[in-house]
Design a protein that fits this description.
The chain is mainly beta. It is built from two helices and eight strands; from the N terminus they run βββαββββαβ. The chain has one domain: Barwin-like endoglucanases, CATH 2.40.40.20.
Length: 115
């Protein structure tokens, strides 16, 4: 039996850009992606702490060290610059493997940097 478990979590990260005219996705600073083992094009769920909105999209790499968190396309209507988000991804695995699994979780600084 396989179950889905939390794989990666960026907790309380600040939106730096919202671009309605971009095709779609969320841009994430590559340092933050590496810290939680998220890769480009991976599906993520986004939870907006400020307004309760929840949506999913895919990740594109942002400039390393920039702190960029850019919500693009139609999802830009669900956020405002300076809103705080929780970004998560999940993985499917065998039940016994899941019992031992440790999710990668970070709590970035106010400047969207690794603490």
């Amino acid at each position: 039996m396989q179950i889905e478990v939390l794989k990666s979590k960026i907790h309380r990260i600040k939106v730096t850009e919202a671009d309605l005219n971009y095709i779609g996705s969320i841009t994430i600073d590559e340092d933050l992606m590496d810290a939680v083992d998220i890769i480009e094009n991976e599906r993520v769920d986004i939870y907006n702490i400020n307004n309760g909105e929840r949506f999913n999209t895919y990740v594109i790499k942002g400039q390393r060290g920039s702190g960029v968190i850019g919500v693009n396309g139609a999802a830009a209507r669900k956020v405002q610059v300076n809103d705080y988000l929780i970004i998560v991804s999940y993985a499917r695995m065998e039940f016994e493997e899941a019992k031992k699994h440790q999710a990668a979780i970070i709590f970035p600084t106010e400047e969207n940097k690794l603490s």
